[in-house]
Write a structure and sequence with these properties.
Largest sheet: 5 strands, mixed
CATH topology of the domain at 492-615: Heat Shock Protein 90
Order of helices and strands: HHHHHHHHHHHHHHHHHHHHEHEEHEE
Strand order of the largest sheet: 1-2-3-5-4
CATH class of the domain at 492-615: Alpha Beta
Radius of gyration: 31 Å
């Protein structure tokens, strides 16, 4: 009895110590996470770095996956403060993937929101729209209103950048509706409300409807004690109101208002916004012909825009300085403007490709983990199957017959598959040959023709030189038509997204449906290439001839076939009288090479529909 009593005492003490240890760890975890968040909002990079190092140390002790997700998140926040966009994107993706593994939908949605904002700032507007919609799929079922508001806000900003003002207003209206449902955090609710009002004002400011814009800015500024409660929002609304009033010719107290805004932004450490205010001051002084002060503020705007990588203001500052300067100095600023503009365009393109690459690599790792998990589950099933086979020995004879029948079926299927694979290899070889011919035409023949054209142009044979120029262009066009596409470096999903991005315009909207629902890694490259080339040919035909404003591209895998449907709302054509062009003929030949089927339906003034069915393994 004494032994049992002593055992219970020891067990109780151990249990209390264990519980105390868990409580202490939870308390420490919350403390570190809150400290990191505080450092981020105060733009304290060293504080954020220290937080994720402490999080990593705690993760190594506890192996708590929630801490791993936070480690990646805070690392992304560090690079965000340092304006290193590709690293920010990468670590937000890593954090999102860990939260996906934990089935933590709120954290997944929040990381997707951060990624969408980053994509918008990098001018990857289509990518930002897709990511925002994905975030809604995680957050809307949970009624997570405080984050849903921000997503609709971002969709409004993206729509405005794409020239879809009506759609932007709809998103902002949705944001206001959702914001009214927030009950747990009044301060966040008020802040979001002011943010939406400012964005609505900016929308009308962008479209030069300054009277309408001022109403939203004034409504925000009339908010109870806004200057004391939300100084950052107050300065933003005041600056935008002052700008719109200035555009309407109401210049009273313009200087005083801009100086007040500048003071608040400096106190708030909003250096990104400081550059904007300096440039507004430069414009003000330029209008009243005080060029020395205008130049001073333009230089200050340039300094802060450079520090914070505020590219839009950077360009604006260089342009303003070129206008305020003369002679070589003006020329220098203009040359810097042109060089920077070209550099930013290339950087944005490179960043979009980098985003696509990171998305591909993280998706690949996620698929590999899923595969390993499935493989392990399969191994367990196999062990259980073997155990059952030992117990149910009397079914051996029946199973043998079934196995024999299955073997016949398998080898028959195998033979068909081998024939289909041989056909795919033939197509791949022909595609390789086309690429080689295209390369020779582009690099060698077109190059030689160009040299010959230059020599002829220097002589009196100008008519012959012009004809040779046409021949050279035809050769280059032929080389582009012959060239193919590779899915080794950029996956099929991102290739399609990039293709749509290249042709996407406010007056020509292209939508892809079910693109991400299909595991394209399991589909042969030859099939994906046919689908890609068919989509590209259809978009080009639609853009050239159809006068369409919308195109829908839908994907589906059903009964061992992949289906592609392309539909536009263009002028259409009479299929009974119109002959197929060489592009459509090539499309049909490619599909039929893979034992597929292509159907084209069209009526005059009713658009065109193209349906493609390709078997996955014959």
């Amino acid at each position: 009895m004494r032994f049992l009593f002593l055992f219970f005492i020891i067990s109780s003490v151990y249990s209390q110590n264990t519980n105390r240890k868990i409580v202490n760890q939870d308390s420490l975890k919350k403390s570190i996470i809150n400290e990191g968040r505080f450092s981020y909002y105060n733009k304290d990079i060293s504080g954020v770095i220290n937080s994720y190092k402490l999080i990593n140390n705690l993760y190594e002790k506890t192996n708590d996956s929630l801490l791993l997700a936070k480690f990646f998140q805070y690392k992304a926040m560090r690079y965000e403060l340092e304006y290193i966009n590709d690293s920010t994107y990468y670590y937000y993706n890593q954090s999102k993937n860990v939260s996906k593994y934990l089935k933590d939908s709120i954290e997944v949605g929040r990381r997707l929101l951060s990624i969408a904002n980053l994509q918008r700032e990098a001018r990857d507007y289509l990518g930002s729209e897709i990511t925002s919609v994905e975030a809604l799929q995680y957050l809307e079922p949970l009624n997570s209103y405080k984050y849903i508001v921000n997503i609709y806000n971002n969709l409004g900003l993206v729509s405005l950048e794409l020239g879809q003002e009506k759609k932007a207003v709809e998103y902002y209206s949705k944001a206001l509706d959702v914001n009214s449902l927030i009950s747990s955090n009044k301060r966040r609710k008020d802040r979001s409300y002011l943010h939406i009002l400012n964005n609505l004002g900016l929308l009308y400011q962008e479209t030069k409807a300054h009277k309408k814009a001022t109403k939203y800015f004034e409504k925000g500024l009339s908010f109870d004690s806004i200057k004391e409660k939300f100084p950052a929002h107050y300065s933003l609304l005041l600056e935008n109101l002052t700008y719109s009033q200035s555009e309407l010719g109401k210049n009273k107290f313009t200087l005083e208002k801009y100086l007040e805004v500048l003071k608040i932004k400096v106190i708030e450490k909003n250096l990104h916004g400081v550059s904007t205010t300096h440039l507004n001051l430069a414009e003000y002084y330029k209008d009243i012909k005080n060029y020395s002060k205008a130049k001073f503020h333009a230089k200050e705007g340039l300094k802060f825009a450079t520090q914070t990588h505020n590219n839009e203001r950077w360009l604006e500052a260089l342009k303003t300085l070129s206008e305020l300067s003369t002679g070589d100095e003006s020329k220098k600023y203009l040359e810097e403007y042109i060089t920077l503009n070209d550099s930013l365009f290339n950087e944005e393109r490179k960043l979009k490709n980098q985003f696509a690459k990171i998305r591909y690599e993280t998706d690949k790792k996620e698929k590999e983990n899923t595969f390993l998990k499935a493989e392990n589950e399969q191994r367990i099933i196999e062990v259980e199957k073997q155990r059952q086979q030992k117990i149910i020995g009397w079914l051996v004879a029946t199973l043998s017959i079934l196995i024999l029948a299955s073997s016949v079926s398998f080898f028959s299927f195998r033979r068909k598959k081998l024939l289909f694979q041989a056909q795919l290899q033939k197509i791949e070889a022909r595609e390789k040959e086309r690429r080689q011919i295209a390369k020779s035409l582009h690099d060698e023949v077109a190059g030689d023709l160009r040299l010959l054209h230059l020599k002829l142009a220097q002589t009196s044979l100008l008519a012959e030189a012009e004809k040779l120029e046409l021949v050279k262009d035809n050769v280059r066009n032929l080389s582009h038509q012959l060239s193919s596409v590779s899915f080794e470096k950029v996956n099929f999903t991102d290739q399609i997204i990039n293709l749509i991005s290249d042709y996407f315009a406010p007056n020509f909207i292209i939508r892809a449906h079910n693109l991400k629902k299909i595991n394209w890694e399991e589909i042969d490259n030859s099939i994906k290439r046919v689908l890609y080339l068919s989509i590209r040919e259809s978009i080009q035909n639609c853009e050239k001839y159809a006068q369409a404003s919308r195109m829908d591209i839908s994907f589906k895998v059903h009964k061992k076939s992949v289906f592609l449907a392309i539909q536009d709302n263009g002028i259409g054509f009479d299929t009974t009288t119109s002959k197929k062009g060489i592009g459509l003929q090539n499309m049909q030949e490619r599909v039929e090479e893979l034992q597929g089927k292509l159907t084209i339906s069209s009526e005059v003034h009713k658009g065109t529909s193209i349906e493609i069915q390709v078997p996955l393994n014959a």
